[in-house]
Amino acid sequence: AEQLLMQSEKLAVVGQLAAGIVHEIRNPLTVLKGFLRFSENGNFKSEYISIMDKEIERIETIIQEFLILAKPQAMNLRWYDVGKLLMDALTPLQPFILQNNVTVELRIASPLPLVQCEEMQLRQAFMNILKNAIEAMPLGGHLTIEANVWDGRSVHVQIADDGCGIPEQQVKNLGTPFYTTKQNGTGLGLTVSQKIIELHHGTLQIKSIEGTGTIVELVIPIEHGERSVYASMGGLYATKFS
Ligand code: ADP
Ligand code: MG
């Protein structure tokens, strides 16, 4: 009976998530349809293509993030340099960093021990957090990326910005699927990052002062350990000790 109850609880979470996704995808679809109407009337301009392309990209992002949340993740663990993963996450954000007049300070200990992780997932989590930091500084600012070893067992990553910060009463909303204060936000970035860090048995903590800035602190164990993780819906997961 317990098992059945859990199954239906999981379905409820998927249902909520799916309802949110449907809602999120409807907006770009409406925009795309609108542009197609233009082409029916013979009023289509080539400038529309880049707008349509952005909307399609948005749908792709939403679906990709949904998959990380909803699909049980097979963890394909390998040993990686977290400093390199941070750089890999930062590189595609360079144009955005320039555009926002953001200066970047790297304090990555060298050498850093390799961490047992799922490379693609961890890079995605870093990218979501870095993107938020840059988005918090539309009028320029300073981004600090720090990584060092903690007690020889975990790597400690700190991503700090001196951007807009988060009002105290909004902190409790962080990590809730679809919570966003941005016009074009999906509100899935932190939820996905949290899930990925949980899958690595790590922790994600956010400290913020409105008007001053935000620090995101990650602790990632170097060894994933004996445990295997069965990820389930909405960031809930069960661990099995073998
Ligand atoms: P999105 O970026 O699409 O809005 P996220 O899940 O990445 O979704 O972030 C949720 C919300 O958390 C953001 O809309 C923003 O209000 C807040 N937030 C996250 N990171 C920061 C940050 N570094 N500075 C200020 N606010 C942040
Ligand atoms: Mg984000």
Report on this structure.
The structure is a single chain. It contains six helices and nine strands, in the order H-H-E-H-H-E-E-H-E-E-H-E-E-E-E. Helix 1 runs antiparallel to helix 2, helix 3 packs across helix 5 and helix 5 runs antiparallel to helix 6. The strands form three sheets. Strands 2-4-5-7-6 form a five-stranded mixed β-sheet. A two-stranded antiparallel sheet has the order 1-3. A two-stranded antiparallel ribbon has the order 8-9. 43% of the residues lie in helices and 23% in strands. Magnesium ion binds next to helix 5. Adenosine-5'-diphosphate binds next to helix 5 and helix 6. This is histidine kinase. It comes from Sulfoacidibacillus thermotolerans.
